Structure of HIT family protein:
Amino acid sequence: MSDIFDKIIEGEIPSYKVYEDENVLAFLDISQVTPGHTLLVPKKHVTNIFDYDDETAEKVLLVLPKLARAIRSTNPKITGMNISSNNGVSAGQTVMHSHWHLIPRYDDDNLNETLVLTIDHSDDYNQARYEEIAAEIKKALN
Ligand code: 5GP
């Protein structure tokens, strides 16, 4: 059965993509806990960390630092980044397709040092703003 991220990977559901190769896709998280909040997912359906084979783990983790640097470079106010993955319902996983949150941190973001991933700022965003953020990250990856 395909989940929402399978549908995004297949292009059946739109997303603001920032990076794609044969093995992974990165796109903006709709909730934008902070501006630039991005999800990195393996294209292969992997439910969570417990299901990774070595090759999938390698493909995902090789992209993670490159993507983190690109996101950081889009805004000098980004001074840190939380990278996290919820694995299993008890850990707060809501989409059962493994994903890595990259959440830029700003000195003035007024969030706790450790983030609550249920924050949802999507009401503050429109298509143009998502496209603008995604375009900046894509540019930084080139
Ligand atoms: P989890 O709670 O499983 O760690 O994170 C799931 C994330 O997926 C949430 O941060 C949520 O905002 C994001 N999300 C859920 N549905 C969609 C969607 O249709 N598009 C995008 N871009 N993000 C989504």
Remarks:
- The mean pLDDT is 94.
- The longest strand covers residues 78-84.
- Residues 27 and 80 are 19 Å apart (CA to CA).
